[in-house]
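forwarding from the other thread:

> can someone predict this with manganese (II) ion?

sure thing
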Amino acid sequence: MKSRVGKIFRNAGKGIDCIVFLNGTEPLHDMTFFYITGFTSGLFEGSAVFTYPDKSLRLVTSLLEQESARRADFPVRIFKSIQEREKMFKSSLRGCRKIGVNPPELTYRNYLLLKKLVPKAELIDVSEAVMKARVVKDRKEIATIRRACKISSEVAKEIIPYIAAGVKEYELAARINFLMQKKGASEPAFETIPASGPNSAEAHYTAADRTVQKGDFVLFDFGARYKKYVSDLTRTYVLGKAKKKQKEMYEIVLKAQRTAMRRIRPGVKASTVHNAAARMIDKTKYRGKFTHGLGHSIGLSVHDGMGLGPFSDFKLEKGMVFTVEPGIYVRGYGGVRIEDDIVVTKGGCESLTTADRNFIEI
Ligand code: GLY
Ligand code: MN
Ligand code: MN
């Protein structure tokens, strides 16, 4: 994908001779490898894509991935041994003095390998340039994320009939994962969170072995991976008739989400959006109970590089895709989070997730 290579080199500034994206073993991959190649099938362990300032690229991969790489419209070199792999890496870097690498997704082992292969070259951290390119999605990426969002939005509705007293949290997680894959997801985007009762106060609860009871909050946080891109959605339901406090918590979180979404538009500082939601919650008796950032960018990774937090001083741009996920967490009692995925548009934002956000008693 030449345009994506061009974007990264423009962000990196002049003087870089080559930027390499090198995978470790699953799951220690540089997802930029898939951003650049556009591959939606294949594992590509130990493979690398070398990109150059003229926007050309070259893939070095193993015989095992030959079939997956057949759709490449750029040169592909296939190795049959570790020795061959090193030779091909070396020849791809011949004459390069300044080589860009992406440390957040490069294993230390592979970093040392590059140093060994090209001892005279300077390895330069270009991760900022990579992140800035990846965070603004192109039309094709948005269409793919939209599809991942559609899958999870449908599942948020279809899981409702399975929520009942006596069901284990892990059964519900299994059902969610099954439904997502039945609708075309390749896998869950991350470990599905099925938090019931007091467990819903733990933002990243994954233990999943409690039995659901009448009167519980039931919070699901899950996402679909579709053609390598993800969605990330949270809905909180109440099993049975809700207590006044449960409804109150829900309505505050919903209002905070709406308030934040209204602030989103190109040119707005990211922290402004977080602060709008946080201030709204802090004006209520749940002050201090919203304990995380409002959202994060999504794409090829669930946490794709940038966040909407109190210290995020970058400005929003058209094409960025973020979660908007305020929450209130009361230890020992339970929590509410409502999470949707939005794309920044010319005049505001559009929600890519479409599951019902209204308060639902089951
Ligand atoms: N599912 C993890 C998160 O919402 O960030
Ligand atoms: Mn989530
Ligand atoms: Mn999230």
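The mean pLDDT is 97. thats all i got for now
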